[in-house]
Write a structure and sequence with these properties.
The chain is mainly β. It has a domain at 9-50. The protein is 0% helix and 50% strand. β3 (25-36) and β4 form a beta hairpin.
């Protein structure tokens, strides 16, 4: 979508992936929204990707000042 004549435009996409098919693939449905002064557009999106196990890491803690 080309920018509006005033240059103001808002774009947003909300997505969340989840494992499927015995953790072989990740399915990610999404909602997309684009709004400008002169027009608007929205859509439903989805994607498939090989499943990748996410590892959890401990948060970094700053050493004490001193």
């Amino acid at each position: 979508m080309p920018p509006s004549s005033t240059g103001q435009r808002f774009e947003a996409e909300l997505a969340d992936g989840f494992p499927a098919c015995d953790n072989c693939i990740t399915i990610t449905p999404a909602l997309a929204l684009v709004v400008s002064v002169t027009s608007r557009s929205y859509g439903l999106l989805w994607s498939l990707a090989p499943f990748a196990e996410q590892t959890r890491t401990e948060p970094m803690v700053a050493p004490p000042a001193g």
